Sequence to fold (466 residues):
Amino acid sequence: MQNSYIEQTAPDAGTLDELTVHLSDEDIREILEAVRAQDSDTVHAYLKYLGSTDRAELLAKVGEEDRRELLAMYSEAIDAETFAEMDPQLRRDSLSAMSATQVASLISTLESDDALEMIIHLDDSFQKEIIHKLSAKMRVALEEGLSFPEDSAGRLMQREVVAIPELWTVGKTIDYLRAAGTDLPEDFFDLFVIDPAYHIKGQIPLNRLIRASRAEKIQDIAIDADHTVRAEMDQEDVAHLFRRHDIVSAPVIDDGNRLLGVITIDDVVDVIDEEAQEDLLKMAGVDKGDLYRAVLSTTGTRFRWLFVNLLTAILASIVISFFDATIDEIVALAILMPIVASMGGNAGTQALTVAVRALSTHELSGTNAWRVIWKETLIGILNGTAFAVITGVVTTFWFGSPLLGLIIAAAMIVNLIVAGFFGVSIPLLLERAGSDPAVASTVFLTTVTDIVGFFAFLGLAALFLL
Fold:
């Protein structure tokens, strides 16, 4: 068997850090062949040179039986970082199949924020069993993290933080950092200055510390910790804070201004990506874990969304039923109706997407709401006019009826104006009512554009053609 991946990517130690690994379908097939042939040398050779992200990709793409085989036979080659990179649903399924001792051994190698992310989706009883087998320090950190609200800064923060007394000198601080060695966080960007009661007094970027002379006092080179984060703050607000102020780390404090931990930019990037995916999927009525969730569970979550859509479709059908006599007289109306409704729905979705995204990034609020609504309405007027001309001309030549062309043109203008107006207004109203605009906006918008489109088109046809 030819091991293409190993031949292409097995570097010497000097080039390993420069290697960009790409896990192709051919590589996955070769790994599976080796697993099924019980060729452990080949499997270990692959796993050795795969990064944690690639190992997670491998476990996600193979079948359930092959995944179990890999996890059972090659667990020593699949580290905790691999599980941290996996989809939450797939990670939960994989970890749930292990013993509490195995999971505890895995997460004990991680920093507290990653360890918490590993167990956060597991069953409560299994969580407690795992936590009971961890060191006292890690146990306290995880129990504290679980006590904070879901999707809060307290869940996101890393407890390992470099905190130093304000009375130290730069020299003493540098000596302390060198002596601490592996006890320090794996990555950190700022040192936080504290008093004896652990109240935060300031922070020092690493580059500022390195440039200072050894004799200088910490309190003299510290800068104000202007961007502190409350432990209860929602992670979306944390991401907005980082994006708005271009910061790479922020201290997390409790109500007494005592330092609890730190949030770093790598965690915030994950939050931004997660929230963006979540909003996108919610607008279609699906969940992030649907790719790996069981068929019946996925069917159930999608059924609820489709049932709501069925109800809205019935409303649109009721509107059509009011004009059944009109449609019987003029069959062309049945052919042209979907055009008006479809154009309105698509135009509304464009405005809706802009509005939901702007709300999530705090670019849209009550202050500029009417300006944005007016802009999208004006876009609806202009696009409505342009497509009215196109559809009017096409309809006139298609059915030989200039009046029918004018009617569909008028309906097109009305529906695109309504689409622009409600595409922004609906998310704003839902957010003000305390609902998630990404979840419910699409259903309401589709209902409005369908009803208005059908009513305008069929109503004008009934008025002028019969």
